[in-house]
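ESCALATION

Customer reports they have been waiting on this structure for their group meeting. Please prioritize. Original submission:
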Amino acid sequence: MAQVTITGSIKVVGKTQQVSEKFSKRELVVTEQGGQYPQLIPVEFKQDKTGLLDGFKPGDEVTVTCFVNGREWTGKDGVTKYFLSLAGNRIERSGSASGGGTSGNGSYQAPPPPTAADAPPAGDEDDLPF
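Update from on-call: job pushed to the front of the queue and completed.
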């Protein structure tokens, strides 16, 4: 799985949606100011990651680390389509990173940045069910 980092300001922090008894998700939209036009990038936080968005609000400057997921879907008409999504893994405030975590309600502790040790192992050790 490819990992990407997005830095920008929060446009939308969605509410947690309980899709099924065992699955919940929450959407974050980040405005990235790169290039000629701003990019509005939706990132989906799933399951236990939905709580990472607590304490964030529109206008906050953040850095989001996420995984790129792609999948194939064939409709009833036989047409195959391909979809791309970003699965949020981490979020931290950017800009005043040396603020010591005292901004906001103080209940959010930013995780450390990813290291090489966080990368998935090489080889056939993939234990994902799909």
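Sent to customer with the following note: The first strand starts at residue 2 and ends at 13.
Escalation resolved.
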